[in-house]
Amino acid sequence: MTAPPSPRLIDDVALIAADIRRRALGEVRLDADLRDYSRWRCGGRAALVVAPRDKRSVSRLLAYFRQRSIPWAVVGEGSNLFFDDAGVQVPLVHVGPQLGAVRVDGTLVRVDAGVWVPGLALKMMRGGLGGIEHIVGIPGTFGGLVLMNGGSLRRGVGENIVEVEVAEQDGSVRRPRHSECGFAYRRSALQQRNCIVLGATLQLTPGNCAAMRRHMLEIMASRRRRFPRDLPNCGSVFVSDPALYASIGPPGAAIELAKQKGAREGDAMVSPKHANFIVNLGNACSADIITLIRRVREAVAVRSGHHMRCEVRFMNFAGEVREVHEWLEDPAWREQRSDEPRRVLNG
Fold first, then answer.
1. Over the stretch 204-243, which tens digit does the pLDDT of each residue have?
2. 289 partner at 20 to 30 Å CA-CA among 56, 64, 226, 271?
3. 120 with 187, same domain?
4. Active-site residue (options: 35, 41, 60, 186)
Protein backbone atom coordinates (compact mmCIF):
# COMPACT_ATOMS: atom_id res chain seq x y z
CA MET A 1 0.00 0.00 0.00
CA THR A 2 1.08 3.56 -0.56
CA ALA A 3 1.51 5.92 2.36
CA PRO A 4 -1.63 7.68 3.61
CA PRO A 5 -2.23 11.21 2.32
CA SER A 6 -0.90 14.10 4.34
CA PRO A 7 -2.76 15.16 7.50
CA ARG A 8 -3.20 18.58 5.91
CA LEU A 9 -5.45 17.14 3.20
CA ILE A 10 -7.53 15.23 5.76
CA ASP A 11 -7.89 18.35 7.92
CA ASP A 12 -8.92 20.44 4.91
CA VAL A 13 -11.67 18.15 3.60
CA ALA A 14 -14.50 20.29 4.96
CA LEU A 15 -12.98 23.41 3.39
CA ILE A 16 -12.50 21.63 0.05
CA ALA A 17 -16.10 20.40 0.17
CA ALA A 18 -17.42 23.90 0.86
CA ASP A 19 -15.38 25.32 -2.01
CA ILE A 20 -16.64 22.64 -4.40
CA ARG A 21 -20.22 23.41 -3.39
CA ARG A 22 -19.65 27.13 -3.89
CA ARG A 23 -18.30 26.50 -7.39
CA ALA A 24 -21.24 24.17 -8.21
CA LEU A 25 -18.90 21.38 -9.32
CA GLY A 26 -21.18 18.61 -8.09
CA GLU A 27 -23.14 17.07 -5.26
CA VAL A 28 -20.97 16.63 -2.17
CA ARG A 29 -21.06 13.97 0.55
CA LEU A 30 -18.81 14.06 3.63
CA ASP A 31 -17.95 10.97 5.67
CA ALA A 32 -19.76 8.73 3.18
CA ASP A 33 -20.27 5.01 3.82
CA LEU A 34 -18.17 3.17 1.23
CA ARG A 35 -20.45 0.16 1.46
CA ASP A 36 -22.82 2.22 -0.70
CA TYR A 37 -20.24 2.23 -3.50
CA SER A 38 -19.29 -1.46 -3.63
CA ARG A 39 -21.46 -4.43 -4.49
CA TRP A 40 -19.51 -6.41 -1.89
CA ARG A 41 -20.98 -4.02 0.69
CA CYS A 42 -17.73 -3.57 2.61
CA GLY A 43 -15.19 -0.85 3.35
CA GLY A 44 -14.84 2.05 5.76
CA ARG A 45 -15.77 5.71 5.30
CA ALA A 46 -14.91 8.11 2.47
CA ALA A 47 -13.76 11.52 3.63
CA LEU A 48 -15.37 13.19 0.61
CA VAL A 49 -17.41 12.04 -2.40
CA VAL A 50 -18.25 14.42 -5.24
CA ALA A 51 -20.80 13.55 -7.95
CA PRO A 52 -20.28 15.97 -10.87
CA ARG A 53 -23.47 17.16 -12.56
CA ASP A 54 -22.29 16.56 -16.15
CA LYS A 55 -19.20 15.95 -18.27
CA ARG A 56 -18.14 19.57 -18.13
CA SER A 57 -18.31 19.46 -14.34
CA VAL A 58 -16.00 16.41 -14.34
CA SER A 59 -13.40 18.34 -16.33
CA ARG A 60 -13.75 21.42 -14.13
CA LEU A 61 -13.43 19.30 -10.98
CA LEU A 62 -10.25 17.59 -12.19
CA ALA A 63 -8.78 20.96 -13.14
CA TYR A 64 -9.67 22.22 -9.65
CA PHE A 65 -7.86 19.27 -8.04
CA ARG A 66 -4.84 19.64 -10.35
CA GLN A 67 -4.43 23.35 -9.60
CA ARG A 68 -4.38 22.62 -5.86
CA SER A 69 -2.31 19.39 -6.02
CA ILE A 70 -5.17 17.42 -4.45
CA PRO A 71 -5.07 13.67 -5.18
CA TRP A 72 -8.32 11.98 -6.13
CA ALA A 73 -9.80 8.65 -7.22
CA VAL A 74 -12.85 7.70 -9.26
CA VAL A 75 -15.72 5.33 -8.43
CA GLY A 76 -18.80 4.14 -10.27
CA GLU A 77 -21.32 1.60 -9.01
CA GLY A 78 -18.63 -0.69 -7.55
CA SER A 79 -19.37 -3.83 -9.55
CA ASN A 80 -15.76 -5.00 -9.27
CA LEU A 81 -14.27 -2.63 -6.71
CA PHE A 82 -14.01 -2.70 -2.93
CA PHE A 83 -12.41 -0.44 -0.35
CA ASP A 84 -10.01 -0.36 2.57
CA ASP A 85 -11.61 -1.02 5.97
CA ALA A 86 -9.71 2.09 7.11
CA GLY A 87 -11.69 4.12 4.57
CA VAL A 88 -10.43 6.39 1.77
CA GLN A 89 -9.05 9.81 2.59
CA VAL A 90 -8.66 11.31 -0.89
CA PRO A 91 -11.70 12.86 -2.61
CA LEU A 92 -13.68 10.38 -4.67
CA VAL A 93 -15.26 11.41 -7.96
CA HIS A 94 -18.50 9.46 -8.35
CA VAL A 95 -19.62 8.87 -11.94
CA GLY A 96 -23.24 7.76 -11.84
CA PRO A 97 -26.68 8.39 -13.35
CA GLN A 98 -26.03 12.11 -13.75
CA LEU A 99 -23.91 11.15 -16.79
CA GLY A 100 -26.69 9.11 -18.35
CA ALA A 101 -27.27 10.17 -21.96
CA VAL A 102 -27.51 7.78 -24.91
CA ARG A 103 -27.50 9.25 -28.45
CA VAL A 104 -28.21 7.09 -31.50
CA ASP A 105 -27.05 8.12 -34.98
CA GLY A 106 -27.78 5.24 -37.32
CA THR A 107 -25.59 2.39 -36.12
CA LEU A 108 -23.27 4.69 -34.14
CA VAL A 109 -24.28 5.06 -30.49
CA ARG A 110 -22.71 7.57 -28.10
CA VAL A 111 -23.07 6.43 -24.50
CA ASP A 112 -22.24 8.39 -21.36
CA ALA A 113 -20.24 6.74 -18.59
CA GLY A 114 -23.05 6.68 -16.02
CA VAL A 115 -25.50 4.67 -18.15
CA TRP A 116 -26.67 1.43 -16.48
CA VAL A 117 -25.29 -1.45 -18.56
CA PRO A 118 -28.28 -3.85 -18.60
CA GLY A 119 -30.57 -0.96 -19.51
CA LEU A 120 -28.29 -0.02 -22.41
CA ALA A 121 -28.38 -3.58 -23.79
CA LEU A 122 -32.19 -3.62 -23.61
CA LYS A 123 -32.50 -0.18 -25.21
CA MET A 124 -30.32 -1.21 -28.14
CA MET A 125 -32.21 -4.48 -28.61
CA ARG A 126 -35.55 -2.64 -28.72
CA GLY A 127 -34.08 -0.26 -31.29
CA GLY A 128 -32.95 -3.16 -33.48
CA LEU A 129 -29.23 -2.64 -32.88
CA GLY A 130 -27.10 -5.68 -32.08
CA GLY A 131 -23.60 -6.57 -31.00
CA ILE A 132 -23.72 -5.97 -27.25
CA GLU A 133 -26.36 -8.48 -26.15
CA HIS A 134 -23.70 -10.22 -24.06
CA ILE A 135 -23.55 -7.29 -21.59
CA VAL A 136 -27.21 -7.57 -20.55
CA GLY A 137 -26.51 -9.33 -17.24
CA ILE A 138 -23.61 -7.17 -16.06
CA PRO A 139 -24.62 -4.94 -13.13
CA GLY A 140 -22.64 -1.76 -13.44
CA THR A 141 -22.21 1.51 -15.29
CA PHE A 142 -20.86 1.91 -18.79
CA GLY A 143 -17.68 3.74 -17.82
CA GLY A 144 -16.48 0.86 -15.68
CA LEU A 145 -17.43 -1.61 -18.42
CA VAL A 146 -15.27 0.30 -20.91
CA LEU A 147 -12.35 0.62 -18.49
CA MET A 148 -12.30 -3.14 -17.81
CA ASN A 149 -13.36 -4.19 -21.32
CA GLY A 150 -16.18 -6.01 -19.57
CA GLY A 151 -18.56 -8.46 -21.14
CA SER A 152 -19.61 -12.09 -21.00
CA LEU A 153 -19.32 -15.25 -23.07
CA ARG A 154 -15.60 -14.44 -23.40
CA ARG A 155 -16.42 -11.23 -25.28
CA GLY A 156 -15.66 -7.62 -24.36
CA VAL A 157 -17.38 -4.33 -25.08
CA GLY A 158 -14.13 -3.11 -26.66
CA GLU A 159 -15.04 -5.10 -29.78
CA ASN A 160 -17.66 -2.46 -30.59
CA ILE A 161 -15.90 0.70 -29.41
CA VAL A 162 -14.89 3.27 -32.02
CA GLU A 163 -13.50 5.85 -29.60
CA VAL A 164 -13.55 6.66 -25.88
CA GLU A 165 -14.04 10.12 -24.38
CA VAL A 166 -11.87 10.71 -21.30
CA ALA A 167 -11.12 13.57 -18.94
CA GLU A 168 -7.38 13.73 -18.25
CA GLN A 169 -5.83 14.67 -14.91
CA ASP A 170 -5.65 18.35 -15.87
CA GLY A 171 -9.31 18.43 -16.89
CA SER A 172 -8.65 18.38 -20.63
CA VAL A 173 -10.82 16.07 -22.74
CA ARG A 174 -9.30 13.54 -25.14
CA ARG A 175 -10.88 11.00 -27.48
CA PRO A 176 -8.53 8.04 -27.98
CA ARG A 177 -9.50 5.78 -30.87
CA HIS A 178 -10.01 2.05 -30.50
CA SER A 179 -6.42 1.29 -31.51
CA GLU A 180 -5.10 3.50 -28.70
CA CYS A 181 -7.15 1.87 -25.94
CA GLY A 182 -5.26 -1.44 -25.74
CA PHE A 183 -8.34 -3.58 -25.20
CA ALA A 184 -7.52 -7.10 -24.01
CA TYR A 185 -9.42 -9.71 -22.04
CA ARG A 186 -10.94 -7.84 -19.05
CA ARG A 187 -8.50 -4.96 -19.22
CA SER A 188 -7.51 -1.90 -21.22
CA ALA A 189 -4.69 0.61 -21.44
CA LEU A 190 -7.09 3.19 -20.00
CA GLN A 191 -6.55 1.63 -16.56
CA GLN A 192 -2.98 2.95 -16.49
CA ARG A 193 -3.92 6.38 -17.82
CA ASN A 194 -5.33 7.75 -14.53
CA CYS A 195 -8.19 9.43 -16.35
CA ILE A 196 -11.97 9.39 -16.01
CA VAL A 197 -14.01 7.74 -18.75
CA LEU A 198 -16.78 10.15 -19.76
CA GLY A 199 -18.33 7.91 -22.41
CA ALA A 200 -17.67 6.05 -25.63
CA THR A 201 -18.96 5.64 -29.16
CA LEU A 202 -20.15 2.17 -30.16
CA GLN A 203 -20.44 0.75 -33.67
CA LEU A 204 -23.41 -1.62 -33.67
CA THR A 205 -25.16 -3.60 -36.41
CA PRO A 206 -28.84 -3.88 -37.40
CA GLY A 207 -30.40 -7.00 -35.92
CA ASN A 208 -33.63 -8.87 -35.45
CA CYS A 209 -35.28 -7.72 -32.21
CA ALA A 210 -36.95 -11.06 -31.50
CA ALA A 211 -33.74 -13.05 -32.05
CA MET A 212 -31.71 -10.66 -29.89
CA ARG A 213 -34.33 -10.81 -27.16
CA ARG A 214 -34.23 -14.63 -27.14
CA HIS A 215 -30.44 -14.56 -26.90
CA MET A 216 -30.53 -12.11 -24.00
CA LEU A 217 -33.15 -14.17 -22.15
CA GLU A 218 -30.90 -17.23 -22.55
CA ILE A 219 -27.96 -15.27 -21.12
CA MET A 220 -30.01 -14.11 -18.14
CA ALA A 221 -31.40 -17.60 -17.49
CA SER A 222 -27.89 -19.05 -17.55
CA ARG A 223 -26.64 -16.42 -15.11
CA ARG A 224 -29.54 -17.08 -12.75
CA ARG A 225 -28.77 -20.81 -12.78
CA ARG A 226 -25.04 -20.52 -12.26
CA PHE A 227 -24.32 -17.34 -10.30
CA PRO A 228 -25.16 -16.38 -6.70
CA ARG A 229 -27.75 -13.61 -6.68
CA ASP A 230 -29.02 -13.54 -3.11
CA LEU A 231 -25.84 -12.29 -1.37
CA PRO A 232 -23.57 -9.27 -2.04
CA ASN A 233 -20.72 -10.05 -4.44
CA CYS A 234 -18.57 -8.38 -7.08
CA GLY A 235 -19.01 -10.96 -9.81
CA SER A 236 -16.15 -13.09 -11.07
CA VAL A 237 -13.12 -12.75 -8.80
CA PHE A 238 -10.49 -14.32 -11.06
CA VAL A 239 -9.77 -13.87 -14.77
CA SER A 240 -10.05 -16.88 -17.04
CA ASP A 241 -6.47 -17.46 -18.18
CA PRO A 242 -5.98 -19.38 -21.47
CA ALA A 243 -3.18 -21.58 -20.05
CA LEU A 244 -5.22 -22.46 -16.97
CA TYR A 245 -8.29 -23.05 -19.13
CA ALA A 246 -6.37 -25.42 -21.40
CA SER A 247 -4.96 -27.55 -18.57
CA ILE A 248 -7.80 -27.47 -16.01
CA GLY A 249 -10.67 -25.27 -17.12
CA PRO A 250 -12.10 -21.93 -15.97
CA PRO A 251 -11.16 -20.45 -12.57
CA GLY A 252 -14.22 -21.94 -10.89
CA ALA A 253 -13.13 -25.46 -11.89
CA ALA A 254 -9.56 -24.82 -10.66
CA ILE A 255 -10.88 -23.55 -7.32
CA GLU A 256 -13.09 -26.62 -6.91
CA LEU A 257 -10.17 -28.90 -7.77
CA ALA A 258 -8.15 -27.15 -5.05
CA LYS A 259 -11.01 -27.89 -2.61
CA GLN A 260 -11.71 -24.23 -1.93
CA LYS A 261 -15.39 -24.15 -2.88
CA GLY A 262 -17.23 -23.08 0.27
CA ALA A 263 -14.01 -21.87 1.96
CA ARG A 264 -14.65 -19.08 4.43
CA GLU A 265 -12.79 -16.23 6.12
CA GLY A 266 -14.93 -14.30 8.58
CA ASP A 267 -18.13 -13.49 6.70
CA ALA A 268 -16.50 -13.82 3.27
CA MET A 269 -17.16 -17.17 1.59
CA VAL A 270 -16.35 -18.82 -1.73
CA SER A 271 -19.84 -19.35 -3.11
CA PRO A 272 -21.10 -22.95 -2.98
CA LYS A 273 -23.03 -22.13 -6.16
CA HIS A 274 -20.09 -20.89 -8.26
CA ALA A 275 -16.52 -21.08 -6.99
CA ASN A 276 -15.33 -17.99 -8.88
CA PHE A 277 -17.60 -15.83 -6.73
CA ILE A 278 -16.96 -14.67 -3.18
CA VAL A 279 -20.09 -13.63 -1.29
CA ASN A 280 -20.57 -11.45 1.76
CA LEU A 281 -22.60 -13.38 4.33
CA GLY A 282 -23.47 -10.18 6.15
CA ASN A 283 -20.52 -8.55 7.89
CA ALA A 284 -17.48 -9.33 5.74
CA CYS A 285 -14.76 -6.68 5.77
CA SER A 286 -12.23 -6.07 3.03
CA ALA A 287 -9.56 -7.84 5.11
CA ASP A 288 -11.69 -11.01 5.09
CA ILE A 289 -12.08 -10.87 1.32
CA ILE A 290 -8.39 -10.23 0.62
CA THR A 291 -7.33 -13.02 2.96
CA LEU A 292 -9.73 -15.42 1.27
CA ILE A 293 -8.53 -14.43 -2.19
CA ARG A 294 -4.93 -15.07 -1.07
CA ARG A 295 -5.85 -18.50 0.34
CA VAL A 296 -7.66 -19.50 -2.85
CA ARG A 297 -4.82 -18.31 -5.13
CA GLU A 298 -2.24 -20.16 -3.07
CA ALA A 299 -4.28 -23.36 -3.03
CA VAL A 300 -4.78 -23.24 -6.82
CA ALA A 301 -1.07 -22.48 -7.35
CA VAL A 302 -0.05 -25.47 -5.22
CA ARG A 303 -2.47 -27.75 -7.07
CA SER A 304 -1.90 -26.52 -10.62
CA GLY A 305 1.15 -24.24 -10.75
CA HIS A 306 -1.02 -21.37 -12.02
CA HIS A 307 -1.16 -18.05 -10.15
CA MET A 308 -4.58 -16.68 -11.01
CA ARG A 309 -5.03 -13.02 -11.90
CA CYS A 310 -7.92 -11.12 -10.31
CA GLU A 311 -10.66 -9.16 -12.04
CA VAL A 312 -11.68 -7.45 -8.81
CA ARG A 313 -9.86 -4.32 -7.71
CA PHE A 314 -9.08 -2.90 -4.27
CA MET A 315 -8.75 0.77 -3.33
CA ASN A 316 -6.53 1.58 -0.38
CA PHE A 317 -6.64 4.39 2.18
CA ALA A 318 -4.73 6.71 -0.19
CA GLY A 319 -7.05 6.06 -3.14
CA GLU A 320 -4.65 3.84 -5.08
CA VAL A 321 -6.43 1.10 -7.05
CA ARG A 322 -4.95 -2.20 -8.19
CA GLU A 323 -6.21 -5.65 -9.04
CA VAL A 324 -6.03 -7.67 -5.82
CA HIS A 325 -3.28 -10.02 -7.01
CA GLU A 326 -1.07 -6.99 -7.68
CA TRP A 327 -1.42 -5.90 -4.03
CA LEU A 328 -0.68 -9.44 -2.85
CA GLU A 329 2.45 -9.68 -4.99
CA ASP A 330 3.86 -6.29 -3.89
CA PRO A 331 6.58 -6.78 -1.20
CA ALA A 332 6.35 -3.11 -0.21
CA TRP A 333 2.81 -3.67 1.01
CA ARG A 334 4.24 -5.31 4.14
CA GLU A 335 6.20 -2.18 5.03
CA GLN A 336 3.36 0.30 5.16
CA ARG A 337 2.04 1.97 8.27
CA SER A 338 -1.58 0.79 8.14
CA ASP A 339 -2.22 -2.06 10.60
CA GLU A 340 -5.08 -3.47 8.54
CA PRO A 341 -3.08 -4.40 5.40
CA ARG A 342 -0.39 -6.03 7.56
CA ARG A 343 -3.06 -8.11 9.28
CA VAL A 344 -4.43 -9.12 5.89
CA LEU A 345 -1.08 -10.18 4.49
CA ASN A 346 0.37 -11.79 7.59
CA GLY A 347 -2.84 -13.65 8.39
1. 999 999 999 999 999 999 999 999 989 999 999 999 888 8
2. 226
3. yes
4. 186
Beta pairing class for 196-203 and 161-167:
antiparallel
Choice among 38, 59, 79, 236 that is catalytic? 236
Residue 317, φ and ψ in degrees, nearest 5: -55, -35
Give pTM, 2 decimals. 0.90
Radius of gyration from C-alpha coordinates of the chain: 20
> Of 183, 207, 231, which residue sits at a domain end?
207
Q: Distance between CA atoms of 27 and 291, rounded to whole angstroms?
A: 35
Residue 307 inside a domain? The answer is yes
Distance CA 298, CA 302 (A): 6
Choose, from 77, 133, 165, 311, the residue flagged as catalytic: 311
Residue 72 near residue 315 (C-beta atoms within 8 A): no
Residues 6+ apart with CB under 8 A from 102: 109, 110, 111, 112, 115, 120, 123
Look up the CATH number of the domain holding residue 145: 3.30.465.10
Q: How does pLDDT run across 3-61, given as a tens digit for each residue?
A: 444 444 555 899 999 999 999 999 999 999 999 999 999 999 999 999 999 999 999 99
Name the domain count of the chain.
3
Task: Tell me the CA end-to-end span of the chain in Å, nearest whole number.
Answer: 16
Active site residue 218: no
**At 14, which amino acid appears?**
A
Q: How many CB atoms lie within 10 A of CB 100?
A: 17
Residue 186 annotated as catalytic: yes
CATH number at residue 333: 3.90.78.10
What residues are paired with 77 via a beta bridge?
none
Q: Is position 237 within any domain?
A: no
